[in-house]
Amino acid sequence: MAVCTLAVFTAVFVCSVSGQFPRACMTVDGIVSKECCPELISPDGQNLGVCGENASRGSCQDLTVPDIPHNPEYPFTNVDDRERWPNKFFNRTCACQGNFWGYNCGECRYGWTGESCAQPAPPVLRKNIQNCTAEERRRFVDALDQAKRSVHPDYIICKEHWLGLLGPNGTEPQVTNVTIYDLFVWMHYYAVRDTLLGPNQPWREIDFAHEGPAYNTWHRMHLLWLEREIQKMLGDESFALHYWDWSVGGTECDVCTDDMMGARHPLNPTALSPGSPFSRWQSVCMSLDDYNRLVTLCNGTDEGPIFRNPGGNVDRPDFRTLPSRRDVGRCLDLPLYDNPNWTETAERSFRNTLEGFDHPDGEYDPSIRSLHNLAHLFLNGTASITHASANDPIFVLLHSYSDAIFDAWLVLQNASSLVSYPEEGAPIGHNLNSTMVPFFPVVTNADVFQFSQDIGYAFDALPERVPEGPSQLTSLEIFGMGAGAFIGCVVCVLVAFGIARKLSAKRWGGPDGKGVYQPLLKEEDGRGRCYTADTTVTFMDNDVRCNVDRR
Ligand SMILES: [Cu+2]
């Protein structure tokens, strides 16, 4: 039921109501009928019918999200409006055909373009912001700033969590406008927030975006969403987010400069420099405790400036240094995507290690915060508060790099299938085919467990495994290794010479006889996508070239 009454709200919510949905569906009729199937109007003003039906784009159909068994950490049923997302709100939505997509089938699926969405889209290129020109950085900063100021044309948020989504008289949906960037922040808060069992009775053991297998897929979708919204805002399909390689900064936030994410304020160590537009940004969705106390939701109002004090946490020296390249390399070596019990205590889990609850080599340690978690905590401010972290625009760059590590892992571990991604038993919302809260139209975790280039973007470079570096060794060890290597080489040459003489008719091959070069996955699949670790990707106008380096 989308319409709650006081009688219904007793000890347990039967129908808490909130979410981010198309403006077109948040009418009294839409909310009561639980149907969200808006008409599609073409750019030249033609009415293409409900879900673009007249143009064979889609049709209005039942959407029943299955109740996939999740782990018992969340013990309730029908208490939280995010369960079986988005069925508590809508159970009839547009089902789009082929590669059409969107709440009214007005867009293409990620990775596709063209009038009939039949052409593979050339991946947009996400670059290391340190390698961007001054002009590229300016464009990126301006785009974020514009998104912070532009009201979202199509989506609105509900500003009440329960009783009275339709207002006191049942005739006035309690919804409000939100800017594009603030909706990005709100979605993160909404996925993270507690279940509200009653005034000041939050159930905290729930998080649809963290501490489970969906960590990577959820944040990937979150960034994809923002990237596309900015593309639409700018009218530029080639716009790409960038990333911050946080594995090289050591004790410095090297993107905290006024031409990137904002320098430190000269007089206030926890504020942003007035030379950055981000110093004028206001945070939203900060007051989680108040929302819990009042049983309400973040309504998108301003709650003070962003604060940040990179490396400045004097109480926690272990949070004063960023993760290292070696840490990234070690986590890329973990072959399993995730491991039971698929939470923040999972051991030898690539996901849990990248998320930062394990040591970089995969060993679980409740006291450790590494990789992604450490990068957040290093920033020591708004970006370190889970439910509010997306307010600091550095979140975009930080997660974009986490996503690059995920992509590198997919390539390196030859993860062409969903190996070790649980189909059930993960925390609520984290199973493979669970719909991700609060994306609408619905997207499952499986939908984005793919190579980035299959869903429309690529990175200028992927993080790599790091061999044990000579910097870790003493000079005596280096000398010893050098001498050993020399002797080893001499022995090898002699042995090889002997074998070559014996087998002079045979070509040098790998154990399977096919040669030593083995692509991890197919090199190209007809869409111009490049998969192997030894591949460099060149972007030329609308063309992608794969150059395979056969070392
Ligand atoms: Cu997050």
Automatic annotation (TrEMBL):
One of its GO terms (molecular function) is oxidoreductase activity. GO terms for biological process: melanin biosynthetic process. The keyword Metal-binding applies. This is L-dopachrome tautomerase-like. One of its GO terms (cellular component) is cytoplasmic vesicle. Belongs to the tyrosinase family. Residues 1-19 form the signal peptide. It comes from the Eukaryota. Residues 392-403 form the Tyrosinase copper-binding domain. Pfam families: Tyrosinase. It is found in: Melanosome membrane. It is a single-pass type I membrane protein. The lineage of its organism: Eukaryota, Metazoa, Chordata, Cephalochordata, Leptocardii. The chain crosses the membrane at residues 478-500. Keywords: Copper, Melanin biosynthesis, Membrane, Metal-binding, Signal, Transmembrane, Transmembrane helix.
